[in-house]
Amino acid sequence: MTQADGEFVLQVIWAGLALICLADLMLTRSRRSVQAQADLPKQIFVGTTAKAQITLSSTKGALPAGLGLRFQTSPELQVGAFQWDNTQPTATIDAPITCNARGKFTFDRVWFFWPSRFGLFDIISTTKVDHPIDGVPNIQPVLSGQITTLVQAQLFGVKDTSFRGEGSEFHQLRDFTTGMDPRLIDWKRSARHGSLVARETHVEQNHQIIMCVDNGYLMREQIGGLPKIDRAINAALTTTWAAGIGGDLVGFYSFDSRPRVFLPPSPGRKAFNRIRAEAAALSYSSVESNHTLALAHLNGLLNRRSLIIVFSDFVDSITAELMVENMAVLNRHHLLIFVALKDPALHSITNPATPNLNNVAMAVAGGQIEKERQIVLDRLRRLGVVCLDVAPDQLSPELVSAYLDIKARELI
């Protein structure tokens, strides 16, 4: 075979391939034959999953076989796996979408693709969505009524009976009966009425509660897929709602390298809505926290004894020295709750499943971190600070329980 013959054969082969490709494209449905419509939520609670409903429709019979989807969104929005059936002219997909941060994000586009008739090409099409989605603090425990039920049961149900007579706020007079504490008898009024009457008191209300949130770079660390600052905000809002039901005044204070937002204590839903708006607007700071300046500034803002709930973090006992000293000063006139979060990953490091040399070295380092962490917490407890070092999923209920216990014991 001559060189010319070889070139001719090659041209024929290429021409044949070109015809096959052309035939494949001609026999394949165009990308405009499939359309998508998205029904998306306007806001998603941080750390929770909502539903993104995507409806696909075909202008030419059934949807193409092998149809696949991809979603273009902000990095903070994650769309999970989904299942659907494409044998009909239309299909509705319920795709889970998770928000991992606070802020304003967008669901940009829906990309869908399917193979050509002979499988030589992928037909790609897209639908522009540009739907804004707000990532907001998680207040599901409040909306579900869980916190309302818990607080009302503790303060106005069983606990109300248990601590009746041990409070400092006068409620009413009632006839003294057998079994009541004789110390409750009001002797002056008993003499006036000619029979024994007892004073009935309730736990005092209108205390000042301050949610003090550290927004430094250490609070940006993710635990269980969510930054510490977001878990702190969620717990602060839950406790704010509980304190509002309990009749107390709640304020908000945030800081990083310097003091930031301060909202004076106010009652009930007014405080909750204001704190929710300010907390949602907090940016993710990348500077180191200045506990000395922040706590000294807060001490100057408060003119009466308050319960201060401090959400913060530290690396080791050395870096926590200034924090401990300034909390000691603040604790002289106020009652403090220090809230820290346990990292489940650290527990898995200190308890390795396979004890090889590398895992043992990591376990020793992790054990040292836990030891120094416990030293700092023990120092705070000796100062009289209530310390909560809990797992992320237990933060809100533990904090609400600590607040109710302090309120019932009238420690504020």
From TrEMBL:
Source organism (scientific name): Yoonia rhodophyticola
The DUF58 domain, residue ranges: 173-348
InterPro entries named among the record's database cross-references: DUF58, vWFA_dom_sf
Protein name as catalogued: DUF58 domain-containing protein
PANTHER family, per the entry: BLL2464 PROTEIN, SLR2013 PROTEIN
Highest taxon of source: Bacteria
Classification via Pfam families: DUF58 (PF01882)
Gene3D superfamilies the UniProt entry points to: von Willebrand factor, type A domain (3.40.50.410)
Upper classification of the organism: Bacteria, Pseudomonadati, Pseudomonadota, Alphaproteobacteria, Rhodobacterales
CDD domains: vWFA
